[in-house]
From TrEMBL:
Its main location: cytoplasm. One of its GO terms (molecular function) is 5'-nucleotidase activity. Nucleotidase that shows phosphatase activity on nucleoside 5'-monophosphates. Binds 1 divalent metal cation per subunit. Keywords: Cytoplasm, Hydrolase, Metal-binding, Nucleotide-binding. It comes from the Bacteria. Belongs to the SurE nucleotidase family. A divalent metal cation binds at D8, D9, S43, N95. One of its GO terms (cellular component) is cytoplasm. This is 5'-nucleotidase SurE. Coiled coil: none annotated. The gene is surE. Its cofactor is a divalent metal cation.
Length: 260
């Protein structure tokens, strides 16, 4: 199996090292693991592509490349320039922090997996929820490291991947913010929504008198209701959410037709 891995935390992020180990296990002795990841952190860029600017790429080692672009750029670079052929699977992550709830809409980790799905290749995004029980642990990614290969293999063996002529499914996996030994079973969950302020802008004046705005997030440990990804993670479960690049509000189509 040929696997392409990427992330949005950057080529030197510890979560990417964890993912490389997991991908090597999944690929097997005769497999290949290729890394194409952003040269610098790209958190929050979503499914952005560098349409108006070129993307510089650098070979850092065997099957290891850095791109000055977004995770989606990295996937495109891997597919169309770097790899000798199309991969069988794209893994994006392991993100430092959760990509559950409304975070999905901003996540470059999700963006990388989404681009792979749009290109017709199986893709899984993986993120490690952080909290009081693992934030300062020796290995904050322990839950993902211990359980990641098992979850991915389950999805490869049993999950539906959609039809070729439609928006292909991809999967969003979030590991709970607890030690690996306390992780419960896998729960299939829908995307939740934290009823908090979400992201806000906060102003600051520099020593030179210039004004800058910083994006600040809100409380992450907020229950989003039964059956949702955030709540599943807070209760100690690994959440798996099927997704696709289709923003149509299908439940509103009939009502809109009637109204118009």
């Amino acid at each position: 199996m040929r696997i392409l891995i990427t992330n949005d935390d950057g080529i030197n992020a510890p979560g990417l090292r964890t993912l490389a180990a997991i991908a090597t296990e999944i690929a097997g002795p005769g497999g290949e693991v290729w890394t194409v990841a952003p040269a610098f952190e790209q958190s929050g860029v979503g499914h952005c592509i560098s349409y108006a600017n070129p993307t510089m790429i650098s070979e850092l080692g065997p099957r290891r490349w850095a791109a000055e672009g977004s995770p989606a750029d990295c996937v495109l670079a891997g597919f169309h320039d770097i790899l000798p052929g199309r991969p069988d699977l794209v893994l994006s992550g392991i993100n430092r922090g959760n990509n559950a709830g409304e975070n999905v809409m901003y996540s470059g980790t999700i963006g990388g997996a989404m681009e792979a799905a749009l290109q017709g290749v199986k893709a899984i995004a993986l993120s490690q929820f952080l909290g009081p029980r693992n934030y300062e642990a020796e290995d904050p990614f322990e839950a993902a490291a211990v359980h990641g290969a098992r979850v991915i293999q389950h999805l490869l063996d049993h999950a539906p991947w959609g039809e070729e002529d439609s928006y292909r499914l991809f999967y969003n996996v979030n590991f709970p913010p607890i030690p690996a030994s306390d992780v419960k079973d896998i729960l299939v969950a829908r995307q939740g929504r934290r009823k908090t302020a979400g992201f806000v802008m906060e102003g600051q004046v520099s020593p030179t008198g210039r004004r800058f705005l910083w994006v600040r997030g809100s409380e992450q440990s907020v229950d989003t209701g039964p059956g949702t990804d955030v709540t599943a993670n807070l209760e100690g479960h690994i959440s798996v959410t099927p997704m696709r690049a289709d923003l149509t509000a299908h439940d509103a189509l009939a009502a809109l037709e009637a109204a118009l």
